[in-house]
Automatic annotation (TrEMBL):
One example GO MF annotation: UDP-N-acetylmuramoylalanine-D-glutamate ligase activity
Lineage: Bacteria, Pseudomonadati, Bacteroidota, Flavobacteriia, Flavobacteriales
Annotated positions binding ATP: G109, S110, N111, G112, K113, T114, T115
Protein name as it appears in the record: UDP-N-acetylmuramoylalanine--D-glutamate ligase
Key words of the record: ATP-binding, Cell cycle, Cell division, Cell shape, Cell wall biogenesis/degradation, Cytoplasm, Ligase, Nucleotide-binding, Peptidoglycan synthesis
Amino acid sequence: MKRLVVLGGGESGVGTAILGKKEGFDVFVSDFGKIKEKYKDVLNKYEIRWEEEQHTEPLILNATVVMKSPGIPEKSPIVKKLFEKGIPVISEIEFASEFTKAKTIGITGSNGKTTTTMLTYHLLKEGGLNVGLGGNIGKSFAWQVAEENYEYYVLELSSFQLDGIIKYKPEIAIITNISPDHLDRYEYKYENYIESKFRITKNQTEEDYLIYDADDEAISGWLRQNKTNAKLIPFSLTQTFENGAFIKNETMDIIINNEEFEMKTAEVSLEGKHNLKNAMAATSVAQLMKIRKETIRESLSNFQGVEHRLEKVLKIQNVQYINDSKATNVNATFFALDSMTAPTVWIVGGVDKGNDYAELMPLVREKVKAIICLGIDNKKIVDAFGNVVDMMVEVDNMRDAVNTASHIAEKGDVVLLSPACASFDLFQNYEDRGKQFKAAVQNL
């Protein structure tokens, strides 16, 4: 009997275990941390053996195949031992894709991938397709393959998930953009991280499509030096194409295989230039899937956006509070500051992932009137911007951050939480950080 060992008992791990059991594998789940009660209940219900707070080597090193959760680095001792024994270590996406005939749309990028994934899913669902949503978002892909019967999946794929693919390929791939992120997992080499993102297209054939940001230096550079078999569909804010998506005269124009779609940019519900890019990428998919133009227009004008991503919380005394907690790197915060049109009180800070704040400098000079540092160690932010803004305050909890911001902000200003950092110093995750921000604003 083939033996599947799952490392990590979270959403992707439990989903993989259920699918493995259904497909006749002998399954064992091992988590070095604690497994949440709700997942233990599921594993017990399916009679899947599990352990927590340890990795028992004899029960792991006898695997036929190992599914490693994306959060576990390849440097971890147990993974190294598996590599030494030549046991394949794959991602949930790789494992699950073997057991479904569904076509997948895979979406990756340093920023914008969640919004693009949600918007693509929204367009296809509104267009009447039988479509599931998974990957880095919502219910695990493997779990859905085990229990649902979708014809299409829209999958948000992180670089960690792509690192664990061998044969998987999406019929349509999107790379929204690439900027330095998670470099601690890639030996601090940017080129390794770029290479990881491009794994999304490595198995694609000439029947498949790669939709990409033609304005992005890292993407263009890779495409100049490497080859993909997929048909290329570029999108851009500054260039025009015979085959691709672009903006001309305040109109989003998308031409694919001689089919043209046009829509005034003002009618797209998402705000900001970066969101026009996300909209162009998602609409390119909808056109490839032959969704009716009228449906695409309606869907683009009624899409609600993603929680914790430039989410308008409340307007109090004519000050707009915006929750952009999902901005966990500098590039995401660049987009946020770039789309601000009023003087901004900026709440920033957290766990720094090797950030370089220099690229934010022109935007901070132009738009930011005060900075509130919300982190345990704010030295880098203070050093970067201390001389640039009139006021800088350090706090160590969300309530103080929001209260301070409300005292500084004047009528017509914006208070923006866009941390540019991970959240683990003071919060469980970026969702917890965003929820605390919203609660503190509602309590003002």
